[in-house]
């Protein structure tokens, strides 16, 4: 694209396009990869679930090696990667374990942003 101010439309199609979709098990069929593919994504909002699924799909997911500290109860009980709260606190407080947003607020804020 040009650096000219206001020139936001492209006049030609994409130069390179993949013929086949990315397969994360094409060259790596290790035990670690199989564990990552079978990870259960629980206690998260829809947006965070999509983010974690994308990371798993494109081999960007890195599992935790040691438990992390929960931001709510301060105990080392977070065993899932990219989570900030343990599953017990997420269920008890009804929050997303990844972003910490309340269950009802995430869906309502997404719909208002799409309407504008």
TrEMBL record:
<dbReference type="InterPro" id="IPR019351">
    <property type="entry name" value="DUF2039"/>
</dbReference>
<dbReference type="Pfam" id="PF10217">
    <property type="entry name" value="DUF2039"/>
</dbReference>
<protein>
    <submittedName>
        <fullName>Putative hipothetical protein</fullName>
    </submittedName>
</protein>
């Amino acid at each position: 694209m040009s650096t000219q101010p206001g020139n936001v439309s492209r006049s030609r199609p994409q130069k390179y396009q993949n013929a086949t979709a990315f397969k994360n098990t094409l060259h790596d069929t290790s035990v670690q990869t199989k564990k990552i593919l079978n990870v259960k994504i629980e206690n998260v909002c829809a947006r965070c679930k999509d983010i974690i699924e994308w990371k798993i799909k494109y081999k960007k997911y890195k599992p935790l090696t040691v438990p992390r500290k929960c931001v709510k109860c301060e105990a080392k009980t977070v065993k899932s990667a990219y989570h900030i709260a343990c599953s017990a606190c997420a269920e008890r407080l009804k929050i997303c374990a990844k972003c910490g947003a309340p269950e009802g607020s995430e869906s309502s804020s997404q719909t208002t942003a799409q309407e504008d």
